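Notes to self after the call with IL:
- keep both proteins in one doc
- input above output, always
- annotate only the second one for now

Protein 1:
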Amino acid sequence: MKEDMENKLVENIVNIVGAGLKKVGVAKKEIDSVAASLAEDIAERLKVVTLDDLDVVQQMLMKNREKTTALEKRVKELEALVASLSEEETRG
């Protein structure tokens, strides 16, 4: 009889703790979801970019820098050509 009561008490405690842990798990998931949503909202308000967006912009900048360097080189070549033609015209 006493043993049955103790077993029942232990069983009730285990059930209560188990139910509590399930509620904690559900609450944690809800908190995680709300926290993620708030973080996204804050990032959007602050106009924070993602790493993917940053990588795309960096690639665009690198391509533009390469084009600019090539154009600067071409301008120098054309300036040298114009200068040499001007010298020939002055001599001739």
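Protein 2 (the one to annotate):
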Amino acid sequence: MSAVGGEDTHIFRISHKIKNLWTDFGNYTHILEIIRLFHKIIAQTIQSTIVVLAPHVGYDKNSTTETYRVRVKEMNETIETILNHRSIRAFKDEPLTEDQITTIVKSAQAAATSSYLQVYTIIGVKDPAKKKKLAELAGNQEYVEKNGHFFVFCADLNRHKIAAEMEGLTEDEVVESLESTEKFMVGTIDAALAAQNAALAAESMGLGICYIGGLRNNLEEVSEVLKTPDRVIPLFGMCVGVPDQNPDKKQRLPMENIYHVDEYQQDETEFIEQLARYNEDIADYYRVRTQGERTHTWTQIIANKMSKPMRLYMKDFLKSIKIPLK
């Protein structure tokens, strides 16, 4: 339950202790300790469930015994689907049906869009050769090739150039808008909103998804594979299919570190303390998941990524497809 901070990681640690004690089950002291740890897991699970459900189902903390009284109110399948998200990187060899594809795309189109502009296009890739090439360009990610269907979400200002021309305007009359940073941002935001709707639709049908940002490793070649015209940017892909794995969920940042009230959090000391606590949970998560081979903290991961700039060709690529970001 990643939404509760470190609770699931604590349960992982307790389970790991039980596993180690189990190897000497005949030891009476170990038996008692195993029983105690099982009780601890049950108590921790109940408390974690209450904390997760409380924002969605309502709760009353006013009790002399300081116990929560949870009343089911608003929890529904949509929220459960959202909270249960995890990236799937192994799929069964089962192509999506045309009905499934249509439902996913229609759901994507139902997303909010700035000023009704709809500045995006979705390309569904079925051709095995194209999928194999895209997998290679995305960093040899096998699941880009092997999935139920592969979607590519593009920011698309080409459609708007054509729309303006249909109404008697020349390209020169709309070029300032087409080349603006604002319209570029609208396109990326629209595509992201549509993609998340598509992801939720897919997951609600029992399918798994994985976003693929690796397409931006080489957008020139990706554009050639997809035959996208000027002013169309393949932003990211999405693998969709029947899951062939059930990975653990990675817990997210503490809510208080993400959600600030009225203004950005001003106390940097508290900000750092929140991240430090989160670091402990993430280190435990990796320690348990890799049996001690990895103990990275979140800030270590971020520092490593920030120290290695990526895709610095992007501005030149955008300029080459007539989006110079003015």
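Annotation: The radius of gyration is 24 Å. The chain has 14 helices and six strands.
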